[in-house]
Write a structure and sequence with these properties.
This protein is α+β, with helices and mostly antiparallel strands. The chain has a single domain, classed as DNA-3-methyladenine glycosylase AlkA, N-terminal domain (TATA-Binding Protein). It has helices at residues 13-17, 70-83, 91-97, 104-108, 120-130; strands at residues 2-6, 29-31, 36-43, 46-56, 59-64. Strands 1-5-4-3-2 form a 5-stranded antiparallel sheet.
């Protein structure tokens, strides 16, 4: 099943996926050759589903491993919007950094978003487990 989420002008799938390394930590899997991000989404009472996320023209394309009902599709879309921070308005951020010439590339390339997990709990565990690992 395919779902589509429209993205704002200037959104960069590539910059967001590679923002800080979450894409290589399970349950994410990243196929850099085909630019596809895969992970399992918890659907509460329903069986979890694997989703494959890629960039489309002005949108994110989501392929699900199986057909899902409308309620599950809404949950998947909500989780993917959250993971890619699609509801965060970065206009003010871009305005501020545009005053610094060495940071002009950030707005030009659609950088500034950090990939996150669908839940705060998963992000917290990843943060604690990856801090000071080097």
């Amino acid at each position: 099943m395919e779902l589509t989420i429209r993205t704002s002008t200037g959104f960069s799938f590539h910059r967001t996926v590679l923002s800080h390394g979450w894409c290589v930590l399970l349950p994410f899997e990243f196929d850099r050759e085909h630019w596809k991000l895969t992970r399992v989404i918890d659907l509460d009472r329903a069986k979890p589903v694997t989703v494959e996320i890629s960039a489309g023209k002005g949108a994110l394309k989501i392929l699900t491993s199986r057909k899902v009902n409308d309620r599950a599709a809404d949950k998947i879309i909500r989780d993917v919007r959250h993971m890619f921070r699609l509801d965060d308005d970065l206009k003010h951020f871009y305005q501020i950094i545009s005053t610094e010439p060495e940071f002009a590339w950030i707005a030009e390339q659609g950088a500034g978003r950090l990939l996150r997990s669908p839940t705060v709990w998963e992000d917290l565990v990843k943060m604690i487990c990856t801090t000071n690992c080097s």
